[in-house]
Amino acid sequence: MIQVFRNLSIKTKLTLLTMLISAVLLFIIGSVALAMEVYSARVNITQELRVLANTLTANSRHPLVLGQYKEIEDLLSSISPQKNIHAAYVFDRSGKPVAEYLSQHNSHFLFQSLQTDFRHENSSFWTGSVAEKQIFDTRHLSLFSPITYAGKQVGTLYLLGDLTRLYGPLAGVGFGMTLSMLVVILLSWLLADRLQKPVTTPLLQLAQLMGNISAVKDYSLRAKKVNNDETGDLVDGFNQMLEQIELHQSRLAEHQLYLEQTVADRTSELRSAVTALEQARNQADAANEAKSHFLSRMTHELRTPLIGVLGMNELLLRTPLTQQQQELADTVQKSGEQLLQLVSEVLDFSRIEAGKLLLDSVVFQLHHVVQDVTSLLLPQAAEKGLPLLTDISSDACLTVRADEIRIRQILTNLVGNAIKFTSSGSITVSLKCTASAGQKRTFFLEVADSGIGMTPEVKQQIYDAFYQVNGTGSGSMSGTGLGLAIVKQLVDLMDGELNLISTPRQGSKFQVLIELPIVEGKISAEGDS
Fold first, then answer.
1. Are 439 and 374 in contact (CB under 8 A)?
2. Which long-range contacts (CB under 8 A, 24 or more apart) does 494-502 make?
3. Is 349 within 8 Å of 486 (Cβ atoms)?
4. What share of the chain is helix, strand, coil (3-state, %, to 5)?
5. Which residues face 517 on adjacent strands?
6. Which three-class secondary structure string do you get for 316-342?
7. What is the C-alpha to C-alpha distance for residues 252 and 19, in angstroms, rounded to an integer?
8. What are phi and psi of 282, to 5 degrees?
């Protein structure tokens, strides 16, 4: 409704506002008059009923005391000419009715009114009331008046009055009010139609001129000033604006040819730059592809002789060796394993970077992977005197479908890092099931340690490739700098979330949130179902 009003012309708006103000004022005045009429009529009816009640109580107190109930019946029958009185009762002091009068007119109204007045919660009105009680609704007025003798209440009088006669005059007032409102609205419309013209005519002419200028783009047109009021000032301002626009148009025309030539020159230069950038991008893509291919091939080629070296060294360790030979062979074994791990991480990183690492989908039990990894790394933790604890929730012991090797790789890297950077305290690996959605569950995997922790600056770079915490590349905390970078990328490939909570000298917590599909039933021999 408001939007429709906003879209109307200013002429229609002023007319409607004038009519609306007149109608509202008349409605308020009529409502006040109607309310006063209702109040006055109810006061008069109440006063009439009270006068009749006083007369009846004065004439019925002696018969009520003497027990002459027939005389009271006759007294109540005398009010039959009162067409607006439909019922009368006299109760003794115990609340028992001893005399009654019931009108023969409109029995439906009489039944409904008596049922309303003589409810249980109103029983005190005719059994123990010592003051006058009134009951009002839209159709009737009831009065309970005490009957006293020698200063004591000996009974109660009940009168039922009809308020329908009240609505006759009120209907006339309402009709007059409605008729007056229609007349005022008509007159206000005629007056508003005449009075709004000095205000709206200049504005409408200005709006028409604006439309013409917008259509033909002729800024030499000018508006005609009619009044010297605010509308006249508006016309002057509009004409000044047209002069400024006309001046700017002429200047723009002068610059248009220059701009067109400049744009043509810049476009030619831009095309040349785009061509050069395209060639550079293609070269960079080719170089990146060559780098990834080289890393993948070289790491693959390095793995074959390295595995042979480790195999021969393991055979050497099984032969009788002196203590010095044993130590040298162990050193060769550890160095070879570290080199093999480096080669494997570089291979994985190059595959992920090239977008060629695909996730397998097998069926396995996630809590068994957690137990296997902790069992595998338990000797490393024991060498440093660190307890490696597990906390697996019972609701997380489920069979899932995912890439078991990559999840095992994520967990191995996180636990290995925790062992590497923890010298005292303990390491805890937790597995929980936090939420469910259909056939999927969200698993919460956390590796918490009490190690050296990280500063905010380190946390910002911890997932960068080849980044190391100590920055030296040597010592007990040295490594390839690819483990956490691979973990981050693997979690992203699984649409998971990796969070880090760490405080210097208080330890770190790596948290992995990952959603996996649940598989019902047992695992088949091939690891799928």
1. no
2. 494/359, 494/402, 494/403, 494/406, 500/454, 500/459, 500/462, 502/453, 502/454, 502/459
3. yes
4. 60, 15, 25
5. 440
6. HHCCCCCHHHHHHHHHHHHHHHHHHHH
7. 50
8. -60, -40
Q: How far apart are CA 209 and CA 223, in angstroms?
A: 7
Task: State the Cα–Cα distance between residues 162 and 527, nearest whole angstrom.
Answer: 91
Contacts of 451 (CB under 8 A, 6+ apart): 418, 421, 422, 423, 425, 507, 508
**Residue 384 CB contacts under 8 Å (≥ 6 apart), including other chains:** 419, 422, 423
- Amino acid in the structure at residue 372: D
∠ CA 455-456-462, rounded to 5°: 85
Q: Select from 377, 399, 418 the least CA-distant residue to 516.
A: 399
* CA pair distance 423, 425, nearest whole angstrom: 7
Q: Which of 15-29, 36-50, 163-177 bottoms out in mean pLDDT, i.e. has the lowest?
A: 163-177
Q: Residue 13: how many CB atoms within 10 A of its CB? A: 15
Q: Which of 116, 114, 133, 119 is nearest to 46 (CA)?
A: 133
Each residue's pLDDT tens digit, 142-158: 989 999 888 888 999 99
Give the β-pairing of 97-102 and 152-162: unpaired
Record the tokens describing residue 262, joined without a space. Answer: 């400049």
Instruction: At 341, list the tokens.
Output: 């791990």
For the sheet with 133-136, list strands across it. 97-102, 85-92, 152-162, 140-149, 133-136
Amino acid at 248: H
pLDDT at 368: 93
